[in-house]
Design goal:
about 65% helix, 18 helices, single chain, about 5% strand, mainly alpha
Length: about 525
């Protein structure tokens, strides 16, 4: 009997009507204060700050390691060539094409998100959609995946923020001890702008205090309320867009077209890998759907927020990629967690001018504001996934407790803060971005599959927004996401499977027994 019950429970789907009804329970309901502008701002806040100021350098230059290893080789490269690489190839100036590819994939997936979010305006995003389409077990897997995805995304951004905070202090001639402003683990060591070694590769005694502090400060802000957080985010988004436009406008005057040659230094393999490295930044429109339950009119506003986020961010990304690769040789950005401001500093040292110096300060401030808004949005998303899984009784009920005054998931928010803050003080940006990328792409595959399944199971349910092209776009989304996943290192795949295995152990020994479907 038990062997028959387990498969039935694992495949049990929660009805959309019940999901919506439970979200309206006064004890666990969230305050509805967001409109389309705030939603779009949340999306831009996540996408722009997390990639354009941090991992764009890694996507351009790739990653280098001391020795060749199968584990550090992109999966697709190994399947095609059967050889280990000393790291991963970068896209070089062709990152602009990588971003076009990523934008196309995200457009397919974004339409799928918009359709589901307009039907199921509930906190939890891909987790909630999967619970309504693919069943409890897959919902648990994607929820567990989202926790990893949001956490490591924010760890990466926090490390990038710390790098920019150090640059900000450097502008004023303040130089704190390296021990307390750099990660304890540095796989490629640490070098100054002249290439001199400051730390050898590996572990050293220290802790990245700025990365830890910014996460904890924003956690306190988020506990106070989503509206206040969104208003703060709107201001920071405007500042960072201004900083990006300043970089493109001023930097264009110092571009050397020779830096764009060769355009494809690593061939199409580099284009694919560059897109895979930077893909996690587009989790921003997942953050928009995660906040659907706190929207005034989610059926209309969520699709607007997702599509507007995608269009605006892609244009800004391509502009920065073109100017950045024109300012400096593509292979000089290895392991640079602050490629935009560090490149401006190099240009300033070669061509001293007051305009460049003040532009660098403005971009430093804009970049820091941008990354603060990214951390803010990702922490909103992570806490709401914990909250949604707890409300479905798959995690302890304490995570779905709502603050009696602020009506926010306070316990989940605090837990998410410590889960992100402590590792951010220890590890480097490359380690984080890879794990986030594979988690993001996996979530996108399941969301796209969910659209197809719901169209088959509930073809007559009202859809305020419908993904165009029938089944074509969801299928293309799945294919392209799997292709980008293949551009990630084999080690990332192994770590991802280990994380999922841990999640399955928790599900079978804890969550399955507490689920509402356990006795059915």
């Amino acid at each position: 009997m038990r062997s028959r019950t387990l498969p039935r429970q694992a495949l049990a789907c929660k009805s959309i009507d019940k999901l919506i009804q439970e979200s309206e329970n006064p004890e666990t309901s969230l305050k509805k204060t967001l409109g389309p502008v705030s939603l779009t701002s949340l999306g831009i806040g996540a996408v722009i700050g997390s990639g354009i100021f941090t991992v764009i350098g890694t996507a351009i230059s790739g990653e280098k390691f001391d020795t060749s290893s199968i584990l550090n080789t992109p999966l697709l490269d190994y399947l095609v060539h059967h050889t280990a690489l000393v790291g991963r190839p970068g896209a070089g100036p062709a990152l602009a094409l990588s971003l076009v590819l990523v934008a196309i994939v995200c457009a397919f997936t974004g339409f799928c998100y918009a359709e589901l979010a307009s039907m199921i305006p509930i906190a939890g995003s891909a987790y909630t959609y999967t619970y309504a389409t693919l069943g409890e077990l897959i919902a648990w897997i994607i929820g567990w995946d989202l926790i990893l995805e949001y956490a490591v995304s924010n760890m990466a951004v926090s490390v990038g923020f710390a790098e920019h905070a150090v640059g900000f202090l450097d502008w004023f001639g303040i130089h704190p001890s390296l021990r307390w402003i750099s990660p304890a683990y540095l796989p490629s060591g640490l070098q100054d702008l002249q290439g001199h070694d400051l730390y050898a590769s590996g572990w050293h005694f220290g802790f990245n205090i700025p990365a830890f502090l910014i996460v904890m400060l924003l956690t306190m802000v988020l506990v106070r309320g989503i509206r206040e957080s969104a208003e703060t985010n709107n201001i920071m988004v405007l500042l960072k867009i201004a900083a990006i436009l300043a970089f493109v406008g001023v930097g264009a005057h110092f571009v050397h077209p020779s830096n764009w040659k060769p355009f494809y230094p690593s061939g199409w393999s580099g284009v694919l890998t560059g897109g895979s490295i930077i893909f996690f930044t587009y989790i921003g429109f997942d953050s928009v759907s995660t906040a659907a339950e706190e929207c005034k009119n989610p059926q209309r506003d969520v699709p607007i927020g997702i599509i507007a986020t995608l269009v605006i961010c892609t244009i800004l990304y391509i502009g920065v990629a073109v100017v950045l690769t024109g300012l400096i040789k593509w292979d000089s950005l290895v392991d640079d967690a602050a490629p935009v401001v560090n490149t401006l500093k190099k240009v300033y040292l070669a061509h001293p001018s007051a305009t460049l110096n003040w532009t660098r300060l403005a971009i430093l401030i804009g970049a820091m504001m941008g990354m603060i808004s990214s951390i803010l949005v990702f922490q909103i998303g992570q806490a709401r996934v914990w909250f949604a899984m707890s409300r479905d009784r798959l995690l302890p009920s304490i995570f779905s407790k709502v603050h009696p005054r602020f009506r926010t998931p306070a316990v989940s928010t605090w837990v998410a803060g410590f889960v992100v803050g402590i590792p951010a003080g220890l590890l480097d940006i490359g380690t984080f971005s890879d794990l986030s990328n594979i988690g993001t792409l996996f979530a996108f595959v399941l969301v796209s599959a969910g659209v197809l399944i719901l169209r088959y199971k509930e073809p007559h349910r009202h859809r305020s927004f419908r993904c165009p092209g029938g089944p074509v776009l969801p299928v293309l989304s799945i294919i392209f996401c799997v292709l980008l996943m293949a551009g990630l290192p084999i080690m990332t795949w192994l770590r991802f499977f280990v994380w999922l295995a841990i999640g399955l152990v928790i599900y079978f020994f804890y969550s399955r027994k507490r689920s509402e479907f356990a006795s059915n």
